[in-house]
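From the methods appendix. Each design record in this collection lists the tokenized structure first, followed by the designed amino acid sequence. Records were kept in a plain field format so they could be parsed without special tools. The example shown here is representative of the layout used throughout.

RECORD:
FOLD TOKENS (473 positions):
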């Protein structure tokens, strides 16, 4: 009898099943070594009265305010009641496009591709309003250095327009202002824009870097990619100087100079097979800075939704199932124990009191589900990790498995077969005994193992298995 160890390395569904990688992971977060559990979403707010399509937090000084948007209104979260109060401009809104938000100083700006850019001053406004009469109607908005920049302007899908320096209210070009615009002639429609020290304009068939150079042109536009562009603005997210996006052939990152395929020969084919491309505009993308992951929420071909996660530090992927419609990164509003007691939440908390959820101004991975804001701070979802085909001899018998799960246990199932084109059928899962042993007996040449961690587990690392060889007749 021999004993071998299988480490949980990368999930590589685009590779053959015999290369030693995982062929499936679900409800896990990728780590340098192994995987950790992914939490359930839990309600953070009361219902808004309409389906929401985005959530965003504005913070200035010590004040944090949380907002959400729907097709007809913008809402402000009230931490005293958990209600979402309508703070729309007079007359409200009527766009079906998803709200986009950005903060410029103490002013929160929002755009919906139907109204002029909306403005809210943190800790002083009582309702949103047009930022100015000269402001454009646009799909996308960001901040580049000291300028508010709008992209895909109403009636001009390849136009970029920026405000005067340090003035979000002045959008009129002229000698007394640095406000101006640029038509990006090559690359198709603008699909999104990210900011910072420089901007990246992502088009259907290209990427353009936008750099401030001062008077008289103000911004210089350099094409850094021709042919390779972004398939949908809903797939764009930025962290630091790096922008992540989906192109026609897979997932990429761009730091303003270099463009890197992060899903090539890993998950790109899997994504296009499992994504409902007819609903690509319902995708949303967000950064979870605590777990060091960028997350794509997309409609899958099974009429559900999937979270696809990329850990930019380890270059590893994983996924999770969800019912959340849209995801976002937010800052928390603070709660006291008295608040929770008034809400009647102390007896039925779905989130630990140690969570950053209850501390004001902390980064948090969140989203919207139906009419409510939700946060991913609930109990651990049920995770599974499935190996590829392990070949250990033509007539081998697996007799035992020992899961290596820190602070928890696991159950194990196995599927064995003689040839790679044989039907894959898993055995009934066996829970580990008090000694950490899962007894099994499975014959074949190729063996796949499926682990389901249990308990308050922290890391799923590996498992050992015992194997014996049988003769042939």
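DESIGN:
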């Amino acid at each position: 009898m021999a004993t071998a160890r299988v480490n949980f390395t990368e999930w590589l569904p685009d590779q053959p099943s015999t290369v030693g990688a995982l062929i499936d992971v679900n409800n896990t977060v990728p780590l340098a070594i192994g995987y950790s559990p992914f939490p359930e979403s839990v309600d953070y707010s009361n219902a808004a009265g309409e389906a929401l399509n985005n959530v965003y937090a504005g913070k200035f000084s010590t004040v944090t305010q949380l907002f959400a948007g729907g097709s007809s209104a913008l809402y402000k979260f009230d931490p005293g009641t958990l209600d979402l109060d309508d703070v729309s401009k007079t007359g409200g809104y009527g766009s079906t496009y998803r709200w986009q938000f950005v903060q410029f100083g103490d002013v929160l700006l929002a755009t919906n591709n139907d109204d002029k850019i909306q403005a809210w001053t943190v800790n002083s406004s009582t309702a949103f309003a047009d930022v100015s009469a000269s402001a454009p109607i646009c799909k996308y908005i960001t901040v580049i250095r000291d300028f508010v920049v709008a992209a895909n302007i109403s009636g001009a899908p390849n136009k970029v327009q920026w405000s005067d320096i340090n003035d979000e209210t002045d959008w009129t070009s002229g000698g007394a202002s640095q406000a101006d615009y640029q038509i990006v002639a090559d690359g198709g429609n603008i699909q999104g824009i990210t900011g910072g020290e420089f901007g990246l304009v992502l088009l259907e068939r290209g990427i353009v870097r936008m750099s401030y150079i001062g008077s008289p042109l103000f911004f210089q536009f350099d094409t850094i990619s021709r042919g390779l562009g972004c398939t949908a603005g809903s797939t764009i997210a930025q962290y630091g100087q790096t922008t992540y996006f989906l192109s026609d052939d897979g997932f990429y990152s761009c730091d303003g100079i270099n463009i890197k395929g992060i899903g090539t020969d890993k998950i790109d084919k899997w994504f296009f097979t499992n994504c409902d491309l007819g609903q690509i505009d319902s995708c949303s993308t967000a950064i979870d800075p605590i777990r060091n992951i960028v997350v794509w929420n997309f409609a899958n071909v099974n009429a559900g939704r999937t979270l696809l996660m990329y850990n930019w530090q380890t270059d590893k992927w994983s996924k999770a199932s969800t019912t959340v419609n849209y995801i976002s990164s937010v800052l928390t509003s603070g709660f006291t124990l008295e608040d929770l007691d008034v809400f009647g939440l102390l007896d039925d908390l779905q989130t630990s009191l140690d969570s950053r959820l209850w501390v004001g101004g902390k980064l948090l991975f969140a989203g919207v589900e139906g009419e409510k804001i939700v946060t991913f701070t609930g109990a651990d979802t049920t995770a599974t990790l499935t190996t590829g085909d392990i070949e250990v001899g033509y007539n081998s018998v697996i007799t035992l498995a020992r899961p290596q799960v820190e602070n928890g246990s696991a159950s194990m199932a196995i599927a064995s077969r003689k040839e790679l084109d044989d039907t894959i059928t898993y055995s009934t899962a066996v829970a580990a005994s008090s000694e950490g042993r899962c007894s099994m007996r499975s014959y074949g040449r190729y063996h796949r193992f499926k682990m389901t961690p249990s308990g308050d587990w922290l890391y799923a690392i590996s498992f050992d298995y015992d194997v014996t060889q049988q003769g042939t007749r």
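APPENDIX NOTE: Helices lie at 268-274, 337-343.
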